[in-house]
Design brief:
This protein is an alpha+beta fold. It has two domains: about 110 residues, no CATH class; about 40 residues, no CATH class. Helices cover about 20% and strands about 40% of the residues. It has two helices and eight strands. Strands 2, 3, 4, 5, 6 and 7 form a six-stranded antiparallel beta sheet that branches. It has a two-stranded antiparallel sheet with strand order 1-8. β5 and β6 form a beta hairpin. The radius of gyration is 27 Å and the shape is rod-shaped. The structure holds zinc ion (2 copies).
């Protein structure tokens, strides 16, 4: 979404409301795309403190779908970013609101996404989600399982 600054920048002391909507379908965080599930209109204020300069101020909230780092369950991530930027209208007669928000979302994106701080993750052996209950894999030490396989092998040998 583009915001035209050229007209307002010629009216020092004036300001106007500016409705902003993030128009991308997904946000890109370091090459990974997270689908936007909730992005509304936000009312920003565009003002001209002096000739040729425009300030854009407001808060934008968005929800994107991510995954739990441990169990891979879908987890919505809510972002709330504050924009307070000043533009030289001669260099930037038009502002791309999506680009401006992209930059803020990148800063605001959580380093770790968990469905629950206590998430138990998934079993490395059978892939079961351990939040749904124990799978039993962790209860049998690996060397005991190997011993069971050897027992089977030996008993088969005796029969031959
Ligand atoms: Zn989880
Ligand atoms: Zn398991």
């Amino acid at each position: 979404m583009r915001i035209d600054l050229s007209e307002l920048s010629r009216s020092p002391g004036k300001s106007r409301d500016c409705s902003i909507r993030y128009e991308r379908k997904a946000i890109d965080i370091g090459g990974t795309k997270y689908p936007v599930i909730n992005a509304g209109d936000a009312c920003f204020t565009l003002s001209c403190p002096q000739k040729g300069v425009c300030n854009l101020e407001g808060r934008y909230e968005l929800e994107a779908m991510s995954q739990c780092d441990r169990c891979l369950k879908d987890v919505p991530v809510k972002l709330s970013v504050e924009i307070s930027e000043s533009f030289n209208a001669e260099e930037t007669p038009e502002v791309d609101a999506d680009e401006l928000l992209d930059r803020e979302f990148l800063i605001e994106w959580p380093a770790k996404v968990l469905c629950d701080p206590e998430c138990k993750g998934i079993c490395q052996i059978c892939g079961k989600n351990l939040n749904d209950g124990s799978c039993g894999c962790g209860e049998i030490p690996a060397d005991l399982r190997m011993a069971a396989v050897l027992d089977l092998f030996n008993s088969q040998k005796k029969e031959v």
